[in-house]
Amino acid sequence: MVINTNTAASNSANTLSQSSSMLSQSLARLSSGSKIVSPADDSAGLAVSMKLGAQISRTNAAQNNVNNAISLNQTQDGYMQQVNTALTRMSELSVSAQDVTKTTADRALYQQEYSTLSGFVTDVATKSFNGVSLFAGGSLSVSSDSEGNSFTNVGVNLGSTSYTSATSGDISTVSGAQSALTATKTAIQQLASDRANIGSNIEALGYYNSTLGSLSNNLSAAKSQITDVDVAKESTNYAKQNILVQSGTAMLAQANAMPNSVLKLIG
Hints:
The chain is mostly helical. It is 73% helix and 4% strand. It has 2 domains: 65 residues; 137 residues, CATH 1.20.1330.10. It contains 7 helices and 4 strands, in the order H-H-H-E-E-E-E-H-H-H-H. A hairpin with a 2-residue loop joins strand 1 and strand 2. 26% of the residues are buried.
C-alpha cells in the first residue's frame, strides 16, 4: 500500500470525467433535440445536414414562387372569364345591329352598349398582379426547382390585333356590324386559345408544386435522420450515464479514503 500515488483514485477520476462528459453530451442532446450539438459530435453528418438544410430552403422558396405564379394565372383567368362574357355580348349586339327592321337610332343604342363593353375589355388589358402586367403578352420564367431551373409561363396579350379589332368596331351601320361580328368572332377564338394556355400553365405549375412539396418533405426526413435526436434512445443513455456518474463519484470518494488506512498501520 502506497500513499504518494493513489492509482485507484486516478483511475476513478478518469472514469468519472468520461462519464460526466458523456452525461453532459446526452443532456445537451435532449435539451436541444439535436444529435449534433457541436461539430465534433459528427463532422461529416454536420456537413451533409448543412447542405440538405440549404437545399430545403431553396426548394421551399421555389415552391413559393410556383404558388405565386399559379395565383397570377388564376387571376388572369378570372379576368378573362369576364372578357369572354363581354365579347359574347358584343358578338350578339353585332348580329342584332344587322336586323333590317332596326332604325339608325336603334343601332346607335346598340353601339353605345358595344362601346361600353369594348371599354371594359380595353381596361382589363391594363391590369397587373403585384406590379406585374397580366396581359402584356410576354412569357414569364418561373423558378421550378432549387437549382434555378425554370418553367416558361406562356403569356396573354389582350392588346393584340385579335382583340383591338373587336374593341374598335362600330355597329352603328349594317356594314360596320358585319365587320364587327367577324372581329368579335376572331377575338373569341383567340380568347379560347389564351384561356387554354392559362389552363396548361396552371396544370403544369400544379405538378411542379406537388413535386417540390414532396421533395421538401423527403429532404427534411433525410436531414432529420442525421441531426434529430432519438429521445427514447437518448433518455436511456442519459439514465445510464447518470448512474455511472453517481457510482463513479462514490468510488472516487472510496479510493481517496483508502490511504487513510495507512494511519492504522502507523498507529
